[in-house]
Amino acid sequence: MTDRPALPVNAHSLSGADILECLHVSASEGFTDHDVKESRARFGGNTIETRKKVRPLLVLLHQVKSPVVYLLGAAAVLALYFGEWTQGAAILVVLALNSAIGFGTEIKAARSIEALRTLGTRSARVRRNGKVVIVPADDLVVGDIVLLEGGDGVSADIRLIEASNVGADESALTGESVAVDKSQEPVAADTPVADRTSMLFKGTFVTRGSGTGIVVAVGSGTQLGRISQLAEEAQPEDSPLEKGLAKLSGQLVWATLILTALIAGTGILKGEDMRLMVDSAIALAVAAIPEGLPVVATLTLARGMWRMARQNALIERLPAVEVLGATTVILTDKTGTLTENRMAVRHLWVPDEEMELTPAEDDGIPDTPKQDLESQPQFRQLVEVAVLCNNAALGENETDHSGDPMEQALLRLGDRTGLAQSTLLALYPRVSETAFDASTKMMATVHAGEDRFFYAVKGAPEMVLRRSAFIATADGVSAMDDVRRTEWTDRIETLGLQGLRVLACAAKTAETAEDDPYSGLTFLGLIGLEDPARVDVPDAIRGCREAGMRVVMVTGDHAVTARSIARDVGLGSEASRMVDGPELSGTDPSKTGKLLETDIFSRVDPSEKLALVRAFQNSGEIVAMTGDGVNDAPALRQADIGIAMGQRGTDVARQAAAMVLLDDAFPTIVKAVREGRIIFGNIRRFAAYLLSCNLSEVMVVGIAVLSGLPLPILSLQILYLNLVTDVFPAFALALGEGEKDIMKQPPRPPKEPILGRIQWSAIIAQSLVLTAGTFGALFAAELWLTLDPGELVTITFLTLAFSQLWHVFNMRHRRSGLLRNEVTRNVWVWGAIVLCTLLLAVPAYIPVVADILQIVPPDRDMWLIILGMSIAPLVVNQIGAILIARFRR
User: Fold this and answer.
1) What is the mean pLDDT of residues 335-340?
2) Is 35 an active-site residue?
3) One of 138, 157, 333, 404 is an active-site residue; which one?
């Protein structure tokens, strides 16, 4: 062991003897305890490194890394420095509340693929010190000799050195739907992972047979470990909403700083009191920042999560709710996403006729028709052989099934045609079996008949056809000749071009059970199987197309199978461009445009899926990625929104995704996209509402300072408006149900801001009217009433507050009716108005609260001014909206 050379990278291309010699280990003795320790020290242990746990302190610190927080923090410090304890404390409470909300959502968002560890928490049978012992999978080391049987989980990457009828389910790793035949024979060094038949990979399962292998990779060195690293390296970008809110916050901060500096400088030049300038600066900082915006946005997204959960879409990260509405491209896996992830019989072909099988009525799975085959002896004999020559078993539930997926499909074929395996075995008891062998590519079972033994054979069609001396026709058994072999070879190719997996069946009778099972066979026919498309997928893909979204298939399966499924679900066309995974390696950047026009990508490995997601993102697309296997995890995490299957999906895929489909139904994605679009529209509506309210507050404070007037509204009152009374109408707007034709519209451009030119124009115009109404109340009070400063501040505060409350009715769509529209039909809006009216009117009559807000109880005359001047802006804005709508028409 001391001179052990480095482990060869391409173990799959070397012979078993070469691997044993390279690692200085005997297949019959295995490692000694000393060898195990040395190998572990040299090559590492069999655990996969997962992302370090998120430290709560770092997440909390991340919440304060925002220009808005810096600005409000500075305002709080300034207030405390000048003895404004109540104002400073109130600002700090607001900051604490927003940070708590952000902390609570982000702490869940950075989960890694720790489920990869659970895939290795098994035991393994190994040879050590000349004995077979059972060790925890985590204790496996490079060089261990492992013994495997059907049903075992593979806990490391293993090079087979002995194999008898070994098959492995690698669907979670490669996307391959059916079990892969394995052997000890080496393959070419450049063979893709999915075709390395001499290897068993960590995280997969042995479905049949038995074998012995040598561990050639453990932990992060395995294929599963490399996928883990890819998923770890994948860095999903911020969602469009996060980017939009960040950009908006930055703009507000800069505008506030410039405005504050301008007003403070003007005041100082005019000789104003420094304390007044400080109060003004604090008021401006508080007025310019919509403190309620993150609260309402979070509540809106949370409600969207709840609504989507009711439709079987579980959202793991809040921003993912809104990302769906901006999605332009959906990259979808095939196995388990577009298909059922289980094999089903689709075609039977006997010498004199063929049968295309239709979906079963009871479960909608394209499998077999419920019919009696008594009157169709050729089909009956074909099915009987397929059921008898079979080692699978069907349980009461699908999770209880065992054996090769194709053999399970054959048993379902028997059940639905009245030829259940238990019934046939009672008539023809099994005597012996010749196991499937990679060299013959066939298996045979021998059954006792009344006076002779019946041999049932199935396997690769070209091999069965070669060993068949006769063929069973409607007129009896005839000799098999070259012409007939050529005809059947063409039929095999025809079924293969349809994306079907093809099996052939043959039979014979003999005097004894020890006859050569593969001599003198009578050819019975062909069985075509496939992993069928989900019946609800075509409508869903059509819905995506109507909504302006592309759907692209990205699968690890073969090109013919991929094109067949694409045709069944209505994806692309017969002339659709298809690219194989190996073609993606070293792609010329100048050809990326043509690459991104491709509808189907086949034989794609995890790194190539990840590269595709990044390529689409770099071209400006908002990418959703669907998948269910370990091989999908890196791409799921990199995508703008990763969507995992909840029922069939692996833990790795679910934890890497931002959304999990609880029903595994592709159409649920379309429902979720609709909800995402509604949410964005609502966010835009309430953001415009909040910012127009805040801008009016900035104008009120700024104009007062520049005009030498006393502050008509104080910073603590502004905080009260922003955090209490503005939040409820804004949240009510967020509960809107959206437009009926929203899924007939294209997705919004990825770079489109939350608030565009049209929205900002409306915000500015509406803010000017709100500001005018507030000063109108101030001037009316000074002109008609004799009031002290506290009463004047009360009038301006309540006028601005109520005008902002009525302002919610200005948020109707410009094409909707004046009295009957999406706002007036929203019962939540009316509830918010009633609640906010109480929150505004009652505090003035509660001494403690009135002292904190620095307001006094209004009398009748004061209320007349407040109500009259607060309703005036609503009337003016509605008249303006009507005039603008008429002008545009």
Assistant:
1) 78
2) no
3) 333
